[in-house]
Design brief:
Order of helices and strands: HHHHHHHHHHHHHHHH
Radius of gyration: 25 Å
Structural class: mainly alpha
Number of helices: 16
Number of strands: 0
Largest sheet: none
Length: 306
């Protein structure tokens, strides 16, 4: 019994200093083990029912009702991530969000950036503007926490940058432009840590296109905010969009559409048609796919589809 109590005390100390969900789940398993040991030895000495052992029994039975069991919902993190990535690939946005949402208070960067991604996808599916905004800010909150936990994780930088730009669209043109350098900084960090993620390269291409294509009135705002305002070129945007295609061909309808649009701006219409026609044959499964189809159709109408 003394060994059981010692085991519980060690576990409780680890629990109190740890923010990791895996360590906390181990703590609850320790509680259950001590609870069973206590119950088996009740006939030996009632005096051994100290406050510590009473706490163990109480918390162990309580966790059976208030926390997922180790064999069911508190899965191995690897299993959670694999399931989450499968659902994301299958466009099962609601199921993905529901899978990860119960763990929103955990302190694990890998889980939080995936939850950020899920909330972001939920936001993009929303037709109600208020609901969309709510999910977008929720997503940004998870991305910030993930990055604070691990600034060496490329995905944390990627989703923080993506959501920082999205939030800027709600907070006004000045805020969005003032975040520009920070967004690019995080995207460059993301490709530094993982140069094989096509979405990071696409996002860099989009950043460059946005500033290369910026209207004059937005340029004035940028000039007022920065001594040296953010600038880019269509050539730079093209380079990043092509890099994304090189890494993962046809991975994203919007990358094809934006590459085609950039080539139109550069008067490289023959190459533009190649990518825009690829969009036309792309299945519409997301809001972005629909937007890409509309963009491609408009551009092909403008330059002619030979």
């Amino acid at each position: 019994m003394i060994a059981c109590i010692r085991h519980l005390l060690v576990a409780s100390v680890r629990y109190s200093i740890s923010r990791n969900l895996h360590v906390r789940s181990q703590f609850f398993r320790s509680l259950k083990q001590v609870s069973l040991a206590v119950k088996k030895q009740l006939h030996i000495r009632a005096g051994l029912f100290t406050p510590v052992t009473l706490l163990a029994v109480s918390m162990a039975s309580e966790t059976q009702e208030t926390t997922p069991s180790a064999s069911s919902e508190i899965l191995n993190f690897k299993e959670i991530f694999e399931k989450a990535d499968q659902l994301h690939t299958a466009y099962e946005t609601c199921k993905l969000y529901d899978l990860l949402k119960p763990y929103q208070n955990c302190e694990d960067d890998q889980l939080l950036w995936r939850l950020s991604r899920a909330a972001y996808d939920k936001a993009k599916r929303e037709h109600n503007k208020d609901a969309r905004k709510t999910f977008m800010y929720e997503s940004f909150g998870y991305a910030k926490r993930a990055l604070a936990l691990n600034d060496k994780n490329y995905a944390c930088h990627k989703w923080y940058a993506i959501l920082l730009d999205e939030i800027g669209q709600y907070e006004g043109l000045k805020i969005r432009i003032s975040n520009a350098y920070l967004i690019k900084e995080h995207l460059l960090k993301a490709v530094e840590f993982n140069p094989n993620d096509a979405t990071c390269w696409h996002s860099l291409g989009y950043w460059c296109f946005m500033f290369a294509d910026m209207p004059w009135y937005q340029q004035k705002v940028a000039s007022a905010l920065f001594a040296t305002p953010p600038t880019s070129t269509y050539e730079e945007a093209k380079k990043y969009f092509l890099k994304a295609e090189e890494i993962d061909p046809n991975f994203y309808s919007m990358n094809l559409a934006m590459l085609g649009k950039t080539l139109v701006r550069l008067n490289e219409n023959d190459d533009a048609r190649k990518y825009l026609n690829k969009v036309s044959s792309y299945a519409i499964r997301t809001v972005d796919d629909k937007k890409a189809h509309e963009e491609a159709a408009s551009l092909l109408k403008k330059i002619g589809n030979k």
